[in-house]
Each structure stands twice: as C-alpha cells, then as structure tokens.
Amino acid sequence: MISIRTASDVPWADVERVFATPGDPRTCWCRYFKLTGAQWTETDVAARAAALRDDTRRADPTPGLVAFVDDEPAGWVAVEPRVNLPRLFRSRVVAAGMSTPFDDASVWSIVCFVVRREFRGRGVAGELVRGAVDHARSSGASTIEAYPIEPAQVKGSPAGSMYHGTVSMFRAAGFDETRVGAPARRVMTLAV
User: Fold this and answer.
1) How confident is the model over 117-135, as a mean pLDDT?
2) What is the Cα–Cα distance from 144 to 81, expressed in whole angstroms?
3) What percent of the chain has pLDDT over 90?
4) What DSSP assignment string belongs to the chain?
5) CATH of the domain at 147
6) What is the mean pLDDT of the chain?
7) Are the CB atoms for 126 and 173 separated by under 8 Å?
8) Which of 11, 89, 104, 142 could form a disulfide with 100 if both were Cys (CB 3.0 to 4.6 A apart)?
9) Torsions phi, psi for 17 (to 5 deg)
10) How many other CB atoms are found less than 10 A from the CB of residue 110?
C-alpha cells in the first residue's frame, strides 16, 4: 500500500532516509532548481540538506511530498510554485516555451523525483505525481507544469535523467504535452 504525505507532516528522519539513496539525491537535496548557479557552487551538501529541512518545517506550502510503502519512506517529489524555482527561469527547456509569466504564482512545477532503489518498479513515482496534483490543487494552483524525459529519445542510458519523471507517467496522470523542450525533454501541463 502506497500513501503520500506532505513533507511537513512527516519526521525529518523519513525525508533523510529517502535522500540517503545512492547517487545525486544525497548531494543535491532537491536544491538544484531553487538556487542560482553561483549559489549552488557556494553551498555544500550539509547546507543543502539544512535548507531542505528548514523548507519542509517552515515553508507554506511545503516544497514536497513523501511516499510511504506501508510505513517505510520510499520516495519524494518536489512540487511547489514555479516562482520558488529560479533556475527554471533560465532553463532552455522551460523558458523557450513559457506560456505564462514566470512570476505567475498560480503555476506550480514538479521538478524532481527520488525513489529508493528497493521501491522502484512498484508505482511509487506515479502515486507521487497524483499526490503532487492533489497538493497543488488544494494549495490554489491553476496550472501544474512538469519537464519529463522521453526515455526512447535519450542518448545512452536515461538513468541520469529519470529524476525528471517520464512522459508516460505524466500522461497517465492527465498531463498534456505542450511543447518539446529538447529532443528528449518535454514540457507537460495540467490545468487544475
């Protein structure tokens, strides 16, 4: 059984458990899109983790959701107003086809997924998308954007880009492809 909870409603230790997954999550702490390039370079891993902890404890709305399989923390999705993610403004994938002003706080973005290895292939990411839609809707979003990959279009292994999610996953949740951001990247939206 998969359940989704806001990050502010779970113990910080559960969020840490998800981000302890091997690879980028334990160095990024879902800060990449929240920081400018200079800020990213100036922060270390401990500062990124502390910033996410502070955001999950104090930000309203919380910047993400945690998935549980039974009572075990299994995954994370970052979802919040697009204006809170300044790196998106400079992203060629996003900015080239932006259909609303960047400062429109009613547009929310889903930018990152983390699923612990032992829980992959069980539908955790799909449930996180559905939870993100519910969370954004109940928080006043008018539109939700996502920037997934089309795995068949990725040169080499798509594993390094899977944190964006896949086109099929968002399509199954009702998102429409609004533009091609790059050969392997799409911009998908859902009006809520």
Assistant:
1) 96
2) 9
3) 71
4) -EEEEEGGGS-HHHHHHHHTSTTTHHHHTT-GGGS-HHHHHH--HHHHHHHHHHHHHH-SS-SEEEEEETTEEEEEEEEEEGGG-HHHHH-HHHHTT--S-TT-TTEEEEEEEEE-GGGTTSSHHHHHHHHHHHHHHHTT-SEEEE--B-GGGSSS-GGGGGGG-BHHHHHHTT-EEEEEEETTEEEEEEE-
5) 3.40.630.30
6) 91
7) yes
8) 104
9) -60, -40
10) 29
Residue labelled with tokens 């449930």:
127
Amino acid at site 148: P
| Alpha carbons 143 and 105: distance in angstroms, whole number | 10
Q: Which of 7, 15, 47, 14 is nearest to 31 (CA)?
A: 47
* Strand partners for 166: 149
Number of domains in the chain: 1
The answer, yes or no, to whether residue 95 has pLDDT greater than 80, is: no
Give residue 33's pLDDT. 93
Segment 46-63 shows an average pLDDT of: 93
Structure confidence at residue 71 (pLDDT): 93
pLDDT at 158: 66
**Would you state the pLDDT for residue 82?**
94
Q: Give yes or no for a cis peptide into 61 (omega within 30° of 0).
A: yes
Domain that holds residue 117: 2-191
